[in-house]
Amino acid sequence: SQMSKMSTFEMKKFEGWETALDPDTLSLLSILNFRKTKFDFTYDKRIEHLTISKFVSWIAEIDVWMQGIGRSWVIIPEQPPKQQAQGDGVRMFWNNVELEVDTMKLKQAEVQFAVDQSLTGNKANSILNEMKLSFILNQKNAVIGCKRTYPNEELTQPTPQNKYARPPESKLRSKK
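and the corresponding structure tokens:
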């Protein structure tokens, strides 16, 4: 049949149109507002207008078919679609969509920043804790009476990972 211009996939994009759209007020803007309620709305003006164009052609065919069976879903656009696309309502619709996208991007960036912040915060804390631990481990242990060292560590020289360790007391005393 001639009504197979829209694929099932494309029809899914307009599921529920029969009840959601009013034949008396049908316009590009009303269809855009309907499309925006769908999970697969692309936020892309060119793609949405193309999809809607196919849909409107399909509805027009359906209407011819429905007139044949005595029912009609008459579509008489007040203005040709090209003019409608330039209208204030449609322009405002896309401005709002753009604003929404920008807001979403901003929120995404804020969340990412918070995540990065917490990660770097945790990293900084873990480095600080390692330094504290290293300092504590390199103190003379009063109970055991010996200095703890990491494997492969020279007793007198702090290792790169241990550069914040306290120098041996002999070096501290000699700087009088």
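(Above: one complete record from the training split.) The CA atoms of residues 24 and 51 lie 21 Å apart.
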